[in-house]
Specification:
five-stranded mixed sheet; PInositol-4-P-5-kinase_N; Phosphatidylinositol Phosphate Kinase Iibeta, Chain: A, domain 2; kinase; alpha+beta; 443 residues; Phosphatidylinositol Phosphate Kinase II Beta; ATP binding
Length: 443
């Protein structure tokens, strides 16, 4: 991968650390996959390194080609916990640090989420957990233990694309003051384990870490080959597609004002992607059904009551979560919907830090927490079903090049030149159709 070592703006410290051998005193991270152990170790190390660096006021072109890397050779590592030999490379550390800041994510909170269990509750595993959401690309997805972040594997080609994308993405995020539904990219790494190179990118989770996602859709505005397969439908949380959405008569009921703001943001994002000749992106939609969640909560409480019946001792803590839940829920439900979710999406929370919010989210499982649920929009007053929607644009790195043009030609031969629903079309057509579909889907 092309790049320049971090050198300027007080960054010589990072340069000196290239390929320095680490000794046993460093912290171990235990995970059931060596790759995850190395990832956790790497995030812990790179965030600690950045805390000793003078952060420049402005990013320079070199920062978009910069990297820091480290080689670890330590025969003393217990191989059950950590591989003895591995390499970590972090791409564009200052760019991603700046993005985290603009998205209101504190570096220590990010490190906490990725590397260990901050709540010290035995039922929580500290390592990221594999998610079964792998798509056609074959990418693997992991969730941080607190479900705030997603770690996605990339190909070396995608890392190249990410480098060229970043140069445009960062200025766009600055210009929009973070008001975007594009993925929030937070860090990109190369992890070399047993001589094999793995590439991963960290992204903010679109869905809530405390409100259950009851239904999930991947929408492109295309109708050809856009149904969930029978195999997909067997999953606990299948990813449905455009035709499934239309057949079910699904709508996103958020009201006129919220719709206007949402479409404005979507249009700006799609225009940005079109200018870069990008396409094949999707709108990821998660639906939280409030009535169903209340029913699940009641059933869970009944099960817990049954389990606790044999223990008649008074507990001074009993009911504290429920008693405090009411007023907080009322306060959060009076929040002005998309006006906060989209307009102030990236304002760093001035109230509690994310670490505190993680604990809070476990108590207020029936309401939106604006600082955490930045993609959430509640259904409008008077909607037939009280729902909370989570919406964001995903998979934005596909360039309309030779491969996509060939795919379009193949589909045109199969379905005919006049079929509007083919997902592989040029970026302008794709963007126009995408916005039209979303406009009809939202009420």
């Amino acid at each position: 991968m092309s790049g320049v070592p971090l050198m300027s703006s007080g960054l010589s410290k990072l340069k000196k650390k290239h390929f320095r051998v680490k000794h046993q005193k460093v912290k171990l991270f235990r995970a059931n996959e060596p790759l995850l152990s190395v990832f956790m170790w790497g995030v812990n190390h790179t965030i600690n390194e950045l805390s000793h660096v003078n952060i420049p006021v402005m990013l320079l072109p070199d920062d978009f080609r910069a990297y820091s890397k480290l080689k670890v050779d330590n025969h003393l590592f217990n191989k059950e916990n950590m591989p003895s030999h591995f390499k970590i490379k972090e791409y564009c550390p200052l760019v991603f640090r700046n993005l985290r800041e603009r998205f209101g994510i504190d570096d220590l909170d990010y490190k906490e989420s990725m590397t260990r269990c901050g709540l010290r509750i035995s039922s929580f595993r500290s390592q990221p957990v594999l998610d079964d959401s792998s798509g056609k690309s074959g990418a693997k997805f992991y969730q941080s233990y607190d479900k705030l972040f997603i770690i996605k594997t990339l190909t070396s080609e995608e890392v190249e694309r990410m480098h060229s994308f970043l140069k445009h993405y960062h200025p766009y995020i600055v210009e929009r003051h973070g008001k975007t539904l594009l993925p929030q990219y937070l860090g990109m790494y190369r992890l070399t384990v047993d001589g094999v190179e793995h590439y991963v990118v960290a992204i903010r989770n679109v869905f809530s870490n405390h409100l259950t996602t009851h239904k999930k859709f991947d929408l492109k505005g295309s109708t050809v080959d856009r149904e969930a397969s029978d195999k997909e439908k067997e999953k606990d949380l299948p990813t449905y597609k455009d035709n499934d959405f239309v057949k079910e008569g699904m709508k996103i009921y958020i009201g006129e004002e919220a719709k206007t703001k949402l479409i404005e943001t979507l249009t700006a994002d799609v225009d940005f992607l079109t200018r870069l000749h990008l396409m094949d992106y999707s709108l990821l939609l998660g639906v939280h059904d409030c009535a169903r969640a209340e029913q699940e909560s009641r059933e869970r409480a009944e099960r817990e009551d049954d389990e606790d019946n044999h223990d008649e001792e008074d507990d001074s803590e009993s009911g504290s979560g429920l008693e405090s839940r009411g007023p907080m829920a009322d306060r959060l439900w009076s929040w002005s919907g998309v006006g906060h979710a989209v307009t102030n999406m990236a304002t760093p929370p001035e109230s509690p830090h994310a670490a505190l919010m993680r604990e809070t989210s476990l108590q207020y499982e029936d309401a939106i927490i604006p600082e955490l649920d930045i993609y959430a929009i509640p259904s409008k007053e008077g909607a037939l079903t009280k729902e909370i929607y989570f919406l964001a644009i995903i998979d934005v790195l596909t360039h309309y090049g030779v491969r996509k043009q060939a795919a379009k030609a193949a589909k045109t031969v199969k379905y005919g030149a006049n079929v509007d629903g083919i997902s592989t079309c040029d970026p302008e057509q794709y963007g126009k159709r995408f916005i039209e579909f979303m406009s009809k889907a939202i009420e």
